[in-house]
Write a structure and sequence with these properties.
single chain; about 270 residues; mainly beta; Thiol Ester Dehydrase, Chain A; six-stranded antiparallel beta sheet; 2 helices; 11 strands
Length: about 270
C-alpha cells in the first residue's frame, strides 16, 4: 500500500490511464463487494480503449490470456484502470491492464486489486479483420480551451448504448451524474470524509456526447469554506478513432458539504 499524493506523481504504475471509475451499490455482489463481473467488464473496456487507439479502428476481444483478482473492490473506491500495448501482430493487439483502488478517505491508500492480459483483433466497418498500422499513431492534442493545470483526472469513462436519450446522444442526466461524482472525488480528498452535494452553481453543455466517446472529467477545488468545498469540473470527449480529436463538451461548478456520521463537519484549513 502507498499513501496518496495528489497529481501525476500519485500514479502507481508507468502504464497510461485508460479508465477511472467509482462503482455504485448496484454493482455489488451478494457478499457486499463489487461484483467481479463489473471489474472484468471494465478491464475489457480499458484494454479495448488502448487497442482501439493503436489500431485506429474498431477492435473485438478474442481472448483473455490471464486475469487475477488480488483484492476486493468496495463501493466508494476510486478505481483506476491502466493499460499498455505489449504485443502487436498483423491484425492482433495484446494489452496488459493493471487496476488500482483508492480508498479510506480518512487515511487514504492505493492498493492493486486486479491485473490482466487480453488480446484484441482490429476490424473494419464490415466486421472483417484489418491490418494494424506498423507505426504507433500520435495521441490527439487537447484543445486550447483547457483543462486548466490545477485540475486532475477525477473520472475517465466510456458511455454505453444504455446511456443514450431518444435523440441518440448520451443522456444529459448521465453526464450530470458523472460530473457530480467527479466533483465529489477532490472534495472527499480535501475533507477526508463523506460529502454531500448542496449546490450546482453552474452547468454548461457545449457539445453532445456519443456512445464510444472516451469522456474525461477534470476536477479541481476552487474554494474551501467552513464546512463546504466548491469544485470546478471540465469535461472532454475523445472521439473518431480513425482521425481522433478531443473536444470540450461540458463545464460545471458544484459545492459540497463535508459530513460526519451525525452532522455537518467543520473543515480544518491548511
Amino acid at each position: 500500500m502507498t499513501e496518496i499524493s495528489m497529481g501525476p506523481a500519485a500514479a502507481p504504475t508507468s502504464k497510461p490511464l485508460a479508465l477511472r471509475m467509482m462503482p455504485m451499490p448496484a454493482d455489488l455482489n451478494p457478499a457486499g463487494d463489487v461484483f467481479g463481473g463489473w471489474i472484468m467488464a471494465m478491464v475489457d473496456v480499458a484494454g479495448g480503449i488502448c487497442a482501439l487507439r493503436r489500431a485506429r479502428s474498431r477492435v473485438v476481444t478474442v481472448s483473455v490470456n490471464s486475469f487475477v483478482f488480488k483484492q476486493p473492490v468496495s463501493v466508494g473506491d476510486s478505481v483506476s484502470f491502466y493499460a499498455e500495448v505489449v504485443a502487436v501482430g498483423r491484425t492482433s493487439i495484446t494489452v496488459d491492464v493493471e487496476v488500482f483502488a483508492e480508498r479510506n478517505p480518512k487515511n487514504p491508500v492505493i492498493v492493486k486489486v486486479t491485473e490482466a492480459r487480453l488480446t484484441y483483433v482490429a476490424i473494419d466497418a464490415s466486421g472483417n479483420k484489418r491490418q494494424v498500422p506498423k507505426e504507433t499513431p500520435a495521441s490527439p492534442p487537447l484543445p486550447a480551451c483547457g483543462p486548466s493545470p490545477d485540475k486532475e483526472i477525477a473520472l475517465q469513462v466510456m458511455p454505453m448504448p444504455s446511456d443514450i436519450n431518444p435523440a441518440g446522444d448520451v443522456f444529459g442526466g448521465w453526464i450530470m451524474s458523472m460530473v457530480d461524482i467527479a466533483g465529489a472525488i477532490p472534495a472527499i480528498r480535501q475533507t477526508k470524509s463523506k460529502v454531500s452535494t448542496v449546490a450546482v452553481n453552474s452547468f454548461v453543455f457545449k457539445q453532445p456526447i456519443a456512445v464510444g466517446d472516451l469522456v474525461t472529467f477534470y476536477a479541481g477545488i476552487s474554494s474551501v469554506g467552513n464546512s463546504s468545498v466548491t469544485v470546478d469540473v471540465e469535461v472532454f470527449a475523445e472521439r473518431h478513432p480513425e482521425n481522433p480529436e478531443i473536444v470540450k463538451v461540458t463545464e460545471a461548478r458544484l459545492t459540497f458539504v463535508a459530513l460526519d456520521i451525525f452532522r455537518t463537519r467543520q473543515l480544518k484549513t491548511k
